[in-house]
Amino acid sequence: MSAARRVPPAWVLSVPIATFGMTAGFVIVTLPQMLAALGVPGGHIAVAVAVVTSPGFWVFALAPFLDVRFRRRTYALVFGLLAVCATAFTVMHHPSQILIETVMTIGYLSLALYGAAVGGWTGALIEKDQNSKLGAWNTIFNICSGGLGVLLSGYFTQHFSPGTAAALVFVIFLAPMLTFFFIPAPPPDDVIASESFLRFGREVISLFKRRQVLVALAMFTLPSASFALTNTLGGWGKDFHASPAIVSLFGGVGGMVAGDIMDVYSSGLSLMAANVPLRRTRTVFVDAALSIAASLYVLLVAQDFLGSFVAFLSLLAGVLAPWAAVFWLDMALRLRRGYDVAQLYRGTQSAYGRYRWPAIFAWLAGTVVGLLATSVPPLLKGPLAVGIFANSSLGFFLGFLVSLVLYLPFALRERG
What we know:
mainly alpha; two-stranded antiparallel ribbon
């Protein structure tokens, strides 16, 4: 019982995930921007990012050695430090393209092992009925810190010298790991490496014997196969005397149809969870109208498709940052025991009510303030995007803070 009392709350156990989120955000968003600023072609940037992030797909094969000899905290400390050092090195030496791709690949491998070590370490400290709560907090810290990492690293690299930017990234990205001192670290299991890998292999084989796993893998690989087929058709078109235009037409239409089906389905689920009284058939027409309007804008109005697309993603960040503030306060104060999933599907009869006007107001206010302090040409030039807010993403962070401050009194009043 004394050991159980020493375990901190779930949200404290999730704080180290912020290092993972900030570093991953840097790799996915800031690193491509840095390479683009150097004049690296978009195709090479895509390949470079794919190579750098590839350890995230195969690192599970190395995870068993995290159970051998040392505590999980030790592994987390070592790999977290390596990942952050690689990130700071990249910020300082990003003109050396081949060098930073090599360093960041090693860094992302370390980051993936850091995430596995932290997850196994903190997950072993709680009871099984608390797993969903810990998972929710991990998701919150991962998403929010990812956005914060993008905002800060982007601002630092644009407004400071490489040395200063690297130092700031190193200190801030490493800061969440200070919570290691407040989290108990159980001793490692008394196993050798061969035993750990053999046990892991048996568990993997047992998973493949389950029908649900095979179905899930099939569903996961089908999109990958279709993407590979699209690339193959692009190479085979000439062999079958098909013009590039025809290959692009069929490949593009086929890809868009498959993607649109998933997007429409996701949109219907989101509207249902938000208690919007629209039938699924009507949401299809709404989605179609919005898609056609966006396509017409790109074809007839926009001068630069890539620039417009990046600006659109930036506008989404301006909407999502205030939403993250409201969601975080709800999870931290009002819904500390988690959501009642069944209530989300009861529509107007839900115990949560149809709408929460304080949350909507705080979200809208943060969105408006954030966009007013943001410049995302060619779509938006906020009147408050001057000084430190000019040519930076700090307006999104301002929107997050506005929603956080406005919604905090209401969340405290209804604290669960």
